[in-house]
Amino acid sequence: MFDIKWIRDNPEAFDAGLARRHLPAQAAELLALDTVRRAAHTKAQEIQTERNALSKEIGAAKARGEDAEEIIAKVSESKDAQAEAEKAAATAQAELDGMLAEIPNLPFDDVPVGEGEDDNVEVRTWGEAPTFDFEVKDHVALGEGLGMMDFERAAKLSGSRFVVLSGALARMERALANFMLNLHTRENGYVEVNPPALVNDDTMFGTGQLPKFGEDLFRTEEGYWMIPTAEVPLTNMVAGDIVDAAELPKRMTAMTWCFRSEAGAAGKDTRGMIRQHQFTKVEMVSVTTPEQSADELERMTGCAEDVLKRLELPYRTVVLCTGDMGFGARKTYDIEVWLPGQDTYREISSCSNCGDFQARRMKARCREAGAKETRFVHTLNGSGLAVGRTLIAVMENYQLPDGSIRVPDALKHYMGGLEVIGPAGDGD
Predict the structure, then answer these.
(1) Residue 387 and residue 312: Cα distance in Å, rounded?
(2) Where in the chain is the domain with CATH 3.30.930.10?
(3) Which of 181, 343, 348, 354 has the fewest other C-beta atoms within 10 Å?
(4) Which CATH class is domain 4-101?
(5) Is the pTM value of this prediction over 0.90?
(6) How far apart are CA 256 and CA 254, in angstroms?
(7) Of 51, 251, 365, 389, catalytic
């Protein structure tokens, strides 16, 4: 969400930022509407001032014993005129707010300009892709071969894009989530939160899912929205607050189910667990002062990368170009894990600095000690990690010739010392 005053003072910079996102200029249209709004508001104030003066004249006329009917009629007319002006101002304000709510955030200057994922820039890589002396299987073949991954049964229960995990694979998904949470809370300074998975309109608006992306979400008949990521409730923990700047950065993490309709992904990644309607994710959220957010993005990305390092999963980190960034982001790093079954890297985490974009929508501010004025906080979010995709990566990178899965050293404690996941009924 943008400050119209900033756009008024910086129309060229605003349009230049939109141009880097390959969007048309909008400053002129927004400012024309802002002019209508301000003129109507000024007119309403002037009418109010005039009516106040007329009211005093009525009192004076009556005190002199004079007829005040003509003045009273003018007061009545001014009330109607003020109501009309106020309605015009409110209409213009609503239209302006609606337009501003659907404009994406502006990228930082160091974000590479590009149109799509092919223009993202690799920042670093870690680890080497494993080599196999047997035919590599993808996670679907492995999971179904083990008898612990059932898409057909899930389709009977729910429909497409769902899965039933059982036995040791279900345990490993839980183990991965516990491993991630313990790492983030015990070593990375995040506070674990267990937030609601159903939220209201204001909460979805605060982080930018509404109004633009309603079709990507699931909504209950009672009007609640099922969260697409824990970013939504975690970030909104400070909605409407004035936070003591000395308490920042504020770091939170949560493991939740996430729900996405995938309305814009028809026909994409239909095989397996890559793109599901329901999935588990460990999310990291940071609330910072404006001065802290750039460093916090680097730190958060490092925390996500550390999960993969400890699981010994090869990955690469890329900075997204302007045409591939999410709606609320000013800069985003994607971490992509190596999947032998696809012979490519696939996204497993996105870490974004949203600047004050979400804070303005949420009205979340901070105040320095002894200061009277407040400032909008900066918010950041990142996957730490997508648990289902991490399970896929473990399965494919740790597969053995007979289709069993070796358990990474970092997870053995969480798996009760289990070394290898074999077929159902054989060590699960």
Answers:
(1) 15
(2) 117-421
(3) 343
(4) mainly alpha
(5) yes
(6) 6
(7) 389
